[in-house]
Amino acid sequence: MGQTDVMALHEELVAKALEQLSKPAVPYPFAVPAAADELVKDIKGHPHAYVVACVMDRQMKAEKAWSIPYELQQRLGSFELPFLLEKSADELAFAMMHPHPLHRFNTLMAGNMYLALHRIQDQYGGNAGNIWGGRPSSGTLVLRFLGFRGVGPKIANMAVNILYRDLRVELADCSSIDISADVQVTRVYARMGFVPQDASVDDVIYRARELHQEYPGIYDLILWDLGRTVCRPQDPACTACEWAPHCAYAHGNRLSA
Q1: C-alpha 83: how far from its chain's center?
Q2: What whole-number distance in Å separates Cα of residue 212 and Cα of residue 68?
Q3: Which of 51, 172, 197, 204 suits 156 as a labelling partner, its CA being 20 to 30 A distant?
Q4: What is the pLDDT of residue 2?
Q5: Helix or strand run (H / E) with residue 113
Q6: pLDDT for the residue 5
Q7: Could you tell me which of 129, 160, 147, 161 has the C-alpha nearest to residue 47?
Q8: CA angle 29, 35, 37 (to 5 degrees)
Q9: Are 129 and 43 in contact (CB under 8 A)?
Q10: What is the largest CA-CA distance in the chain?
Q11: Given this model, what pLDDT does residue 163 score?
Q12: Cβ contacts of residue 257 below 8 Å, gap of 6+?
């Protein structure tokens, strides 16, 4: 596929993302059941639940990771920050494990959550909303999320992107919101022809920066959702894909998945 087709596809993706941003926010479900989804989206009443969900989002399905705050609320009886601060790391680990494990790395995640809760208390006045309050720059906000143990660049950028794109938190700019180059995004980005099939995470990130400097992660969600539904690892449903007219893979440049 030629450079013209790649740029046409990029422009269409940007246009779709901007269209979504221009409409009232109707966030897709982050977690199940509905009560778990409501808890992690309650960034005014329980902003620390959002932070804990981001900390938990590691090597497991996103919906399950984001349901952990609600599951802990049910097991512990509360998810209010003062209540959680009274719990030791061992108590949190026990709650993560019983009556059945909530995560692949329960002890590690409990320790990360314990430190996150106390960081919110010590650094942000006991209100996680202060992490993103006051219209910070995107770079500042990414850096703040990187300050939580267990949160790397991918999750930090994802956390900031969701706050801006889906929860409509105001930021001074979007220039430091990188694309979250997980397995879904990387596969779709390569198949579309933006990067080589064997592209690294850095290849994807810097290509997105090159193409849309003011907001590199602008169509992150579109690619992620596409990778989970249509552009599957095996037998992608190209005939059902709205992006097929400009996609290298759909046009027969079918490199190995």
Answers
A1: 27
A2: 34
A3: 197
A4: 60
A5: helix 106-123
A6: 84
A7: 129
A8: 25
A9: yes
A10: 59
A11: 98
A12: 187, 233, 234, 236
Written as six digits, the tokens of 7 are: 């740029």
70, 56 Cβ separation under 8 angstroms: no
Say what the pLDDT of residue 256 is: 38
Q: Which amino acid is at 200?
A: S
CB atoms within 10 A of CB 82: 9
* C-alpha distances in Å from residue 65, one per residue of 27, 129, 180: 17, 21, 17
Identify the pLDDT of residue 1: 53
Among 115, 106, 116, CA closest to 75: 106
Q: Is the pTM of this model over 0.90?
A: yes
Token code pair at residue 196: 């080589």
The pLDDT score that the predictor gives to residue 257 is: 38
- Tell me the two tokens of residue 131: 């992490």
Tokens of 239: 């005939």
As a whole number of angstroms, the distance between CA 30 and CA 33 comes to 10
Q: What one-character DSSP code corresponds to residue 235? A: S
Tokens read off for 120: 């919110």
Query: Which residue has 């910070």 as its token pair?
Result: 136
Give CA separation, 68 vs 5, 61, 63, 147, 214, in Å.
Answer: 42, 11, 9, 21, 34
Burial class of residue 215, CB neighbours in 10 A (0-12, 13-18, 19+): buried
| pLDDT at site 13 | 97
What does the block give as tokens for 215?
A: 């907001």
Residue ranges, the chain, pLDDT below 50: 254-257
